[in-house]
Amino acid sequence: MDQQPTLTEAPAVALSGIPHVEGGRRWLLLCSLFVCFFTLLALYCGVLAVLLPNQIATLDPAHKVENLGLMFFVTSIFSTLTTPIAGAFSDRTRSKWGRRTPWIVAGSVIGAITLASVAYMPTFWSITAMWVIAAIALNSMQPALTTVVADRFPEHARGTASGFVGAGMTAGGTVGMIVAGRLANNMPLAYAVFAGAIALCCIAFVILNHDTSSKGEPLAKFRAGDFLKGFWIDPKAYPDFWWAFAGRFTIYMGYQAIVTYLLYILQDYIGLGTDRANIVIGTVSAITFVCVMTSSFLSGVLSDWIKRRKPFVFAASLIMGAALVVPLFMPNLEGMYGYAALIGIGYGAFMSIDMALMTQVLPKDTGEAGKDLGLLTTAVNIPQIISPVMAAQLLKYFNTDYRMLFIAALVFVFAGSFFVLPIRSVK
Questions:
Q1: Backbone phi, then psi, for 223, in 5-degree steps?
Q2: What is the average per-residue pLDDT within 338-365?
């Protein structure tokens, strides 16, 4: 078995064979990644946590929990299948614009058009169908954008790059909920803002950060059987890949259970009215924003400095677990604000280091980083399938007692913290 690279073993070129960025172009790429992931997560969190829950509740208030869980279940199936497949095909893309650019542009534009249309859908199933199309497009774009970190940065610099990405994602998610909460009374405008932003920033990204042409690169003949087999990564040969997958999966199971129903938690657990909850979700997000920004940047840079990843991921998941305890003992606004602060610190640190750790547990250099990172992304997507359904069933079984949701999330997050410990190729 080939030895997986350690933290200090920086290859001369990236996983794709593209030269690493240096100097001013490195900082331009870092800032561009921050903006793109900021916008993408603002879209996801604003739509998933605020806009869609409001639409679903308006259609059928009595069954809002079950309907929202069903919508996320259906959508996440398509998202989970799309991500690794799109990543694999981006590895095989040969064009004068490079491997990733066509996917970034097409996915963001199609996703923007269909997302803007969601606001005009009159029924549950029409909303679901249009959001599924948007999610497929956006999840076709995301693995190509994610793989840029592995393509263009050496391993010893990926903590900093991951810190920029993690800060963009977590801060964007926070700002997205604030913006969505403020615009929730005007759905067409709200959806249009997010749709226009993702298309514009992704187009600007590929213009400012030119990909290297892949036109002349050798390409193995496409065989469906070999293509499908490529999605299997042997746990015996690459155990670290699957430990990282398991840790990411369980942490997101816990995190997603709360985020999905945050608006309903404010309404039904804290006792706020709809208008007040839409405003307070922005306040909660603003608190998270401050903590996330500080935590993400400091964790990413500090991780590169001390050349360690695992302690940061472990500590971050423990802090996230502590955040989930607060609302159990303080079922009020103060408790939610405490949750917001701690989840920001923990989740910010987790996101900033998680991306760097993921790039370092990939299988040997096969030129399939897009596919492999796409597989690791399913550790985020699969919880989006299971977690809302699990949460809806828990709430149904325990008569809408949101304490059980916090307890279940706590179990998953604490479990996830221990899956990083067996990883041997990353310190």
A1: -130, 120
A2: 76
Question: Taking Cα atoms as reference points, which of 327, 298, 332, 329 lies closest to residue 315?
Answer: 298
> pLDDT tens for residues 272-325?
998 899 889 888 988 988 887 788 777 767 777 777 677 777 888 889 999 999
CATH class of residue range 29-213+238-419: mainly alpha
351-367 burial, b if ≥16 CB within 10 A, otherwise e? bbbbbbbbbbbbbeeeb
Q: Rounding to the nearest 10 degrees, give the CA dihedral for residues 210, 158, 169, 310.
A: 160
| Domains in the chain: boundaries | 29-213+238-419
Tell me the residue type at 285.
S
Give the residue from 254, 260, 238, 230 showing the smallest Cα distance to 374.
Answer: 230
pTM reported for the whole predicted model: 0.70
Q: Judging by beta carbons within 10 Å of its beta carbon (0-12, 13-18, 19+), is residue 104 exposed, middle or buried?
A: buried
Q: Which residues lie closer than 8 Å to 289 by C-beta, 6 or more apart?
A: 171, 174, 175, 178, 344
CA distance 66 to 43: 23
